[in-house]
Design brief:
mainly alpha
């Protein structure tokens, strides 16, 4: 005769074991799928802008210093207003912020394209364009990162981020070379018109996404909603109290300071003054993007990544060595190969960090924390552009070599001294 205990055991054994439901792919979600398609088209248009603008500045002025100043004009408001952009995103909604910035960019680029078509464009108009783009970036960058977790489940974050990053680098890979050919055949205005029209794709996708539910209004007698300054301070405290995040931001700042000038100013100057070809400039950018796409695909195959912090530090060190090598050779094929290797490392670590950050940070703070992270990434970019323009005028090889040495030395120091960075996992 069986006892109650054995009967209970038998019944428990007979019960089926719950099997977790398979994770749906993010592309099965209509709103995310529409956003991905719209963003991919818009990103392709951005590559035409990124090739056309430096070429236009160099065509108008023939000066790498002027190009560095133009790029700095966009980078300053981007860095200065990024914290405000994160706070606005958390206070209102990422969707509204992205719609507003996309509409603004459409009007701005379309206006400059029309002025160029009419052959009345002047340098001061490009300063206005790039400044306004920098302001738009300050709001759209944190909003873009904060929108994704509202559209997909936590288990879908990694493939969702991989899709968006793959679109980014795929368009960076295939876009610049055709942009250079179009500029050569039909002029710079044609490339800018294409960019203006491409924004409409992401605007349509964003309008189809429903507005997320608003937080309930505070009850009578409850504390009023904190001020914007208080909201920004909350994001800063969240990062300060998280040593791995803080160390990650230091690495971001170092990489962007050492890389922005050589790639933003140096590559355009090399293509213009060494090779005399917009197509060469687009090809070099495509090489970097091709390597980055391969890195994203490789990083996505790693199911349980380990020692992310060390991976990031090693990637930073290798970027420094590759910049030094570019300065030593300055040959088209060699530069393209080194840029591809640099992109491989960047793509590999990026695909892992995006989901890590989005899962680590509380949803209500995500916009602000992402804005703090992006400030660390872009805060020194204006200085890098200015220094890059001056160094490029003095010596193009010297620009790449000096930047690479600084990046390699600081990366080595971080590996040896920062336990928080090494232990990010």
């Amino acid at each position: 005769m069986s006892t109650p205990a054995t009967e209970g055991t038998a019944e428990a054994a007979a019960e089926p074991v719950a099997v977790p439901a398979p994770t749906r792919h993010p592309l099965s979600l209509p709103h995310f799928r529409n956003l991905w398609l719209g963003a991919t088209i818009s990103l392709l248009g951005d590559q035409f802008y990124l090739v056309a603008l430096p070429w236009l500045v160099l065509q108008l002025t023939g000066s790498s210093v002027a190009l560095g100043t133009i790029l700095m004009t966009a980078a300053i408001p981007r860095a200065a207003l990024m914290l405000v952009g994160g706070a606005v995103t958390d206070r209102f909604s990422a969707r509204r912020v992205l719609i507003t910035t996309a509409l603004t960019r459409t009007v701005l680029v379309g206006t400059v394209a029309a002025l160029l078509w009419l052959k009345v464009v002047e340098l001061w108009q490009l300063y206005i364009l790039t400044f306004a783009f920098g302001v738009a970036d300050a709001f759209s960058f944190p909003a873009g990162s904060a929108l994704i977790p509202t559209l997909v489940e936590p288990r879908q974050l990694q493939p969702a981020n991989a899709l968006l990053q793959s679109s980014t680098v795929l368009t960076q890979m295939i876009g610049p070379a055709p942009a250079g050919l179009i500029i050569k055949s039909w002029g710079i205005a044609s490339a800018l018109f294409f960019d203006a029209v491409s924004f409409l794709a992401v605007i349509v996708a964003l309008f189809r996404i429903p507005e997320p539910a608003k937080a309930p209004a505070p009850a009578a007698g409850a504390p009023a909603r904190p001020s914007m300054l208080h909201s920004i301070a909350e994001g800063l405290r969240a990062v300060r109290n998280d040593p791995p995040l803080l160390s990650l931001m230091i690495i971001f700042a170092t990489i962007n300071f050492c890389v922005a000038g050589p790639t933003g100013v140096g590559l355009a100057a090399v293509a213009k003054f060494r090779f005399g070809s917009a197509a060469a400039f687009g090809t070099l950018l495509s090489c970097f993007s091709g390597g980055m796409l391969a890195g994203i695909l490789l990083g996505g195959m790693v199911k349980r990544p380990r020692r992310r912090g060390m991976q990031f530090i090693v990637m930073s060190l290798l970027c420094g060595l590759e910049l030094i090598a570019i300065g030593l050779v300055l040959k088209l094929v060699a530069i393209g190969s080194l840029l591809a290797l640099m992109g491989l490392g960047v793509g590999f670590v990026n695909v892992q960090f995006s989901a890590w950050l989005q899962m680590r940070v509380e949803r209500a703070l995500l916009g602000r924390v992402m804005s703090v992270l992006m400030v660390s990434a872009v805060g020194l970019v204006p200085v890098s552009y200015a220094v890059g323009g001056v160094l490029a005028k003095w010596s193009l090889p010297g620009l790449f070599i000096a930047s690479g040495v600084v990046l390699a030395v600081i990366s080595t120091a971080m590996a040896l001294t920062s336990q928080a960075a090494r232990h990010i996992d």
